Amino acid sequence: MSTEQQIRRVTTKALDILKKKKVKITALTAYDFITAKLLDEAGIDIILVGDSLSNVFQGNETTLPVTMDEMIYHTKAVTKGVNRAMVVVDMPFMSYQLGADDGFRNAGRILKETHAAAVKLEGGKRVAETVKKITENGIPVMGHVGLTPQSIHQFGSYKERGTTKKEADEIFEDAKILEEAGAFAVVLEKIPASLAKKVTSALTIPTIGIGAGKFCDGQILVTPDMLALNVDFHPRFVRHYSKLASEINKAVKSYIGDVKKGNFPSTEESY
Questions:
Q1: Using DSSP, how many helices (H) and how many strands (E) does the chain show?
Q2: Active site residues
Q3: Which residues form the domain of 264?
Q4: Does residue 124 sit in the same domain as residue 47?
Q5: Domain co-membership, 97 together with 14
Q6: Domain identity same for 75 and 90
Q7: What sections of 12-119 are H helices per DSSP?
Q8: How many domains does the chain have?
Q9: Cα–Cα distance, 41 to 32 (Å, whole number)
Q10: Does pTM surpass 0.90?
Q11: pLDDT (mean) for 80-88
């Protein structure tokens, strides 16, 4: 029996074991019951209810508009479909930036109302006090450094981060600071693979990469991206594991044709 098969419920302790045994950690996003159920049944380790729902579910240009109430609504649906995976929730923009007390209060609300297992915050040194406050009170926190989408207006673009020595050093230090503050894992987004390898080797907690090369302890993608549901979005780091947009288009056209021709419903499909 593999290490993954021995894990009945993914927890922070289970993720530590996977890192120590050098077993790669898998993560994907979900925003609804059906998708979460399918991902969980397939054996995914972590399901992130990402603030990316602002983009792929709500159609916004950035992650900034999504609210606490919306994140909680979607997470409630996700957790109902999950038995094994660890459900982590993105804390939305302005739910933790005002200070440690505010961040702790909102993190507590998320866990209390949704049955999720952890929250995720973006940033390093600037959120360390908040991460420490939340984790010291029993709420697991996943960190996120490199390209942090909630800071898009500060960055000015979604281009790769950590390409200069100064910024690479800052990302490395931020990751270490998050570990010291009590984070159980850190997402490394859109940074050079060499930097991700250095960070992964330096930390005792797992790193989860997205556009950060193969040396991270695990990988995460936005589920609609890897299923090619959004045909207009295909960044370099996304691999398409299916072509669902074209499959859905084909199925809908087939349905339309059957209805127009009077072929649906058939006698067998009628009462």
A1: 12, 8
A2: 189
A3: 244-271
A4: yes
A5: yes
A6: yes
A7: 12-20, 33-42, 53-56, 68-79, 100-114
A8: 2
A9: 14
A10: yes
A11: 98
Q: Give the pair of three-digit tokens for residue 142.
A: 């996943």
The whole-chain average pLDDT of the chain stands at: 96
Tell me what the mean pLDDT of segment 233-257 comes to: 96
Same domain, 191 and 257: no
Residue 35 has pLDDT above 90, yes or no: yes
Side chain identity at residue 72, one-letter code? I
Q: List Cβ<8 Å contacts ≥24 apart for 56-61.
A: 56/31, 56/222, 56/224, 56/225, 56/229, 56/230, 57/31
* Residue 92, both tokens: 């939305």
User: 145: which strand partners?
Assistant: 188
Strands 46-49 and 86-90, bridge-based pairing = parallel
DSSP-assigned states of every residue in 186-224: EEEES--HHHHHHHHHH-SS-EEEESS-TTSSEEEE-HH
Instruction: Give residue 5's pLDDT.
Output: 66
The total number of residues shown for the chain amounts to 271
The pLDDT, as a whole number, for residue 163 is 96
Same domain, 170 and 264: no
Please check whether residue 217 is in contact with residue 207, taking contact to mean a CB–CB distance below 8 angstroms.
yes
Tell me the per-residue pLDDT of 144-176, one tens digit each, with 9 for 90 and over. Answer: 999 999 999 989 888 899 999 999 999 999 999
- Residue 155: CB atoms within 10 Å: 12
The residues, ordered by sequence, that sit 6+ positions from 186 with a Cβ below 8 Å of its Cβ are 142, 143, 144, 145, 175, 178, 179, 199, 203, 205, 206, 207, 208
